[in-house]
Amino acid sequence: MPASQSTPPTTAWVVLGVLSHAKELSGYEIKKWADSSVGFFFVSPALSQVYSELRRLEALGYATSREAPQDDLRNKRLYRSTELGTQALGEWVNNAPVEAPVLKHHLALKVWLGHLADPGRLRELVAEHVSTIERTLQQVRASRERSSGRAEWTYPATALGWAERYYEGELLLAEQLLDDIEGGAAGDDHA
Amino acid sequence: MPASQSTPPTTAWVVLGVLSHAKELSGYEIKKWADSSVGFFFVSPALSQVYSELRRLEALGYATSREAPQDDLRNKRLYRSTELGTQALGEWVNNAPVEAPVLKHHLALKVWLGHLADPGRLRELVAEHVSTIERTLQQVRASRERSSGRAEWTYPATALGWAERYYEGELLLAEQLLDDIEGGAAGDDHA
DNA sequence: GGGAGCATGTAACGGGTTACATGATTGG
DNA sequence: CCAATCATGTAACCCGTTACATGCTCCC
């Protein structure tokens, strides 16, 4: 037995994960679901990659698809998870070690380079960041509210609750950051 | 003037940023500094990539290098930022828009897939994650303490202070997560 | 003697993105 | 009529990683 052994990339599990929460979805729909759920705590793949992961999953026997007419002339391909797929996904969830979170925090990076920044501009950058987070937070809340209540969405709702608190934390951190850089050259052991 | 226009990848600024905090460093040293500073809020590049970014920076005129003997027979290449480099970096810090933070939170992802997990195992996964974060937090604290005090490290210390609070927040979030999944099927609007 | 740290680099690979191409339907 | 949404896919590209290759020195 020579063949492929290496585990699929996490993105494959993300796509299969969306499928595990629904019965049958098109690539396009998967992308949308990903954007408004998993996207708040794990990078949501580009549409083109959703399609290629779907092909991979099908090749692995983790998903099946069927052609469905959506209107005259137009076809969409609908995917669903197989037994094997759900099994493999559960296997991954339970047995793969939890990798350390990966973070690219551009604002923190810029603060770290604050000695090269115009002080006033630095504060503006924090403000920019706060707006970004606030927009995200609104979306998270909307999503979480949508999923709260239905029994099948318990875990997604829990994850979204986590994300909500996470972004609230981001806001707090930004405020404290502002104090730090405002409070003239601070950064040493606070009061 | 036809030539290259596209901005270098963020990693280039990371490397140049390390250089902007020192006078002259080898690639190897840069990697170490990156690991224990910027690495806590922005992915630290692999050593091989540090070297290739250095070559890029030199080609752009943002850095210069010189050959320095480190012991008989052995040479190391020492890099320093040029005027132009510092200028370009400052330009980036001040004028490039702050991109949204990128997060890959594997634990949250797995919680989101909790319907496929063994409940007991899920709690273990959270515990695994907590250990990871605790280890990171210790390192952040050590780094922050090392940089606190010296005037030139004000901004790095501020950034590390941010990181310290960030990981403390992660710990809190993990606790609440445990409550959520422990407290039977919760996730809806808390008390 | 052997392993860890210092030091630099190449090569292969893959994960993932943007841009491009196409085209129908619906709503303002 | 035009923009947005639905819908799928290809191609180019590059960022970044792991694995490999090499070799010295210091310390146990």
Set out the fold topology.
The structure is a homodimer of 191-residue chains.
Chain A: H1 10-20, E1 25-26, H2 27-35, H3 47-60, E2 63-71, E3 74-81, H4 83-95, E4 102-104, H5 106-112, H6 119-147, H7 154-182
Antiparallel strand pairs in A: 1-3, 2-3
Chain A binds a DNA duplex (28 and 28 nucleotides) through residues 9, 11, 26-29, 43, 45-49, 51-52, 70-77.
Structure description:
2 copies of one chain form a homodimer. With 191 residues, chain A is mainly alpha-helical. Helix content of chain A is 59%, strand content 12%. In chain A, strands 1-3-2 form a 3-stranded antiparallel sheet. In chain A, a hairpin with a 2-residue loop joins strand 2 and strand 3. In chain A, helix 1 crosses helix 2 and helix 1 crosses helix 3. Chain A is elongated and about 60 Å long. The relative contact order of chain A is 0.11. Chains A and B meet through helix 1, helix 4, strand 4, helix 5 and helix 6 of A and helix 1, helix 4, strand 4, helix 5 and helix 6 of B. The structure holds a DNA duplex (28 and 28 nucleotides).
* Percent helix of chain A: 55-70%
Compressed to H and E, one letter per element, the order of chain A equals HEHHEEHEHHH
User: Helical segment tally of chain A?
Assistant: 7
Most extensive interface between two protein chains, with residue counts = A-B, 73 and 73 residues
Sheet with the most strands of chain A? 3 strands, antiparallel
Oligomer: homodimer
Low-confidence region ranges of chain A: 185-191
